């Protein structure tokens, strides 16, 4: 089972440039969370800070009762074994074939025999759909395959926390759908805590259990998927629905004159909240919640059409319209 990550008052700057300030949230154990934000808001910096590659200026990162910010290097090294990290481009060694790339953490951090390493590597490569590609070099395969190889490498030490940086960058919509399904299936199988940084709104609307949004040097909101997808908070509503009306401008935030000019405009209605993506075989994940549960518990009426469609034909997703209607009642 994954472990929770409690972030308290995290602040990070590079020189005089403030990246974000007073970020506080808890990534629930075993759940899939997504972190969004306009370009340049420090999403990748946040991932690197969580794993201890960057030191924050202030704040705490609590994992299993230990504050990563104050740990000595030797203790931090041990806690990092809880993590698996998938970087944007896979970060594979170009001179090594896929087998040796995936085997690298096992050879570096364990004393397992080559026989045991082979069994683990082949298992993880099969898990991400790369059986038979062991001898290929990173330069001989597609971007999607490189990402899956990077994911296999992130999995070989059986991490309890997976940090995933823009898995959809450079992928076409079909490959993005495949890798989204892979994350759902992996979460069901290994029950790890996932944090995914992405710009892809379709993925954000259907994959995670929780969503966070970094904006203007702070955490605008973090919480259950249904909370953010039904939110009327201007920056959250604008970003999650890809609208031009709102505080986010082409470069940074809009100035007072731009916002004043928009004040009389009628906002388009919120789109329906889709059903969350299910596992390929229909087996429920431990973290999976009934559709509409958060809305019902908090007295929120979701946008019309929510939970009735939007995932038609997706494997593992209940297609029963009556079940969707029940979620609204």
Automatic annotation (TrEMBL):
Family annotation (Gene3D superfamilies): P-loop containing nucleotide triphosphate hydrolases
Superkingdom classification of source: Bacteria
GO molecular function: ATP binding; ATP hydrolysis activity
Keyword Lipid metabolism: no
UniProt cross-references to SUPFAM superfamilies, sorted A to Z: P-loop containing nucleoside triphosphate hydrolases
Signal peptide range: none
Protein name in the entry: ABC transporter ATP-binding protein
Sequence segments annotated as region (Disordered): 254-298
Residues of the ABC transporter domain: 5-241
Protein keywords: ATP-binding, Nucleotide-binding, Transport
């Amino acid at each position: 089972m994954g472990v929770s990550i409690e972030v308290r008052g995290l602040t990070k700057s590079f020189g005089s440039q403030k990246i974000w300030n007073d970020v506080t949230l808890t990534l629930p154990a075993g759940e899939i969370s997504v972190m969004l934000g306009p370009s340049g808001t420090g999403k990748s910096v946040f991932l690197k800070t969580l794993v201890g590659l960057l030191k924050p200026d202030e704040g705490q990162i609590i994992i299993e009762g230990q504050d990563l910010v104050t740990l000595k290097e030797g203790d931090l090294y041990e806690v990092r074994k809880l993590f698996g990290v998938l970087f944007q481009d896979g970060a594979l060694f170009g001179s090594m074939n896929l087998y040796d790339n995936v085997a690298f953490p096992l050879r570096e951090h364990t004393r397992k025999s080559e026989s045991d390493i082979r069994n683990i590597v082949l298992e993880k490569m099969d898990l991400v759909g790369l059986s038979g590609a062991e001898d290929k070099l990173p330069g001989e395969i597609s971007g999607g395959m490189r990402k899956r190889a990077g994911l296999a490498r992130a999995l070989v030490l059986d991490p309890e926390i997976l940090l995933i940086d823009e898995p959809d960058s450079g992928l076409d919509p079909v490959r993005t759908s495949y890798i989204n399904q892979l994350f759902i299936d992996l979460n069901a199988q290994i029950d790890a805590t996932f944090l995914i940084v992405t710009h892809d709104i379709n993925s954000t609307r259907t994959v995670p259990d929780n969503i966070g949004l970094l904006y203007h040097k702070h955490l605008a909101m973090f919480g259950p998927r249904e909370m953010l997808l039904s939110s009327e908070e201007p920056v959250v509503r604008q970003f999650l629905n890809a609208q031009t009306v709102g505080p986010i401008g082409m470069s940074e935030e809009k100035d007072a004159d731009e916002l004043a000019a928009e004040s009389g405009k009628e906002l388009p209605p919120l789109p329906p909240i889709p059903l969350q993506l299910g596992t390929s075989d229909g087996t429920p994940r431990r973290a999976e919640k009934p559709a509409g549960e958060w809305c019902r518990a908090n007295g929120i009426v979701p946008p019309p059409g929510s939970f009735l469609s939007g995932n038609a034909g997706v494997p593992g997703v209940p297609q029963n319209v009556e079940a969707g209607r029940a979620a609204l009642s």
